[in-house]
């Protein structure tokens, strides 16, 4: 299972990438707006930090402009994945960009039917938004289970399932149980995954006992 980080905050990405656990990054217009920085400058910096796919979203909604924007973004680096919305024009742009060898992440997926269309359009990634589905009183992870089941039946579907809109560590655990390919995780959720009170308690006890031995591992 691959971990992407869901942020446009370069300092956060640098810190989390240093753990060796980060396989890619996803951004969206809201995350970029939050930084208050120039989009291309931010993307260049992220591409220098992380080798894996870096999602960069188009801002247009019509096919021709999406295509032009996608091409412009992809020129930044080979590992840019152009993010397009799951609309008829977005999927048309997905097909065209994919045929040019550009990775495409189809975003704003909220149904299994939409995920089938993304795979048919040759997307490298489809992003179902589990948290936003939960937010409206439905079951986001049930959608992931459906997509995993459907894609498993078609070997010609090469689209990876990128679980997005993650809100807590259990979304990651459930995605892993279901066999989703990737989860894009907000920095706070990734940090929360490290934590367990018994780890802290156990470590404190081991350290206290080790101190009693008066030994040093390095002093040999
Ligand atoms: C990532 O690709 C998505 O844009 C992101 O996960 C959406 O998350 P949100 O629902 O918390 O905004």
Q: Output the strand order for the largest sheet.
A: 1-2-3-4-5-6-7-8
CATH class: Alpha Beta
Tally of separate domains: 1
| Helix count from the secondary structure assignment | 11
Fold blueprint:
Layout: E1 2-6, H1 10-17, E2 24-26, H2 29-35, H3 39-49, E3 54-57, H4 63-74, E4 80-85, H5 88-99, E5 103-109, H6 112-120, E6 125-128, H7 130-135, H8 140-152, E7 160-163, H9 169-178, E8 182-185, H10 187-194, H11 197-213
This protein binds erythose-4-phosphate (E4P).
Offer a quick outline of the entry:
The protein has 220 residues and is α/β, with parallel strands linked by helices. The protein has eleven helices and eight strands. It has a single domain, classed as TIM Barrel (Alpha-Beta Barrel).
Structure notes:
This protein is an alpha/beta fold. It has one domain (2-219): Alpha-Beta Barrel (TIM Barrel), CATH 3.20.20.70. Helix content is 51%, strand content 17%. The protein has eleven helices and eight strands. The protein has an eight-stranded parallel barrel with strand order 1-2-3-4-5-6-7-8, surrounded by seven helices. Helix 5 (88-99) links the parallel strand 4 and strand 5 (103-109). The longest helix has 17 residues, at 197-213. Bound molecules: erythose-4-phosphate (E4P). Erythose-4-phosphate binds at residues 6, 26, 28, 107, 127, 129, 131-132, 164-165, 184.
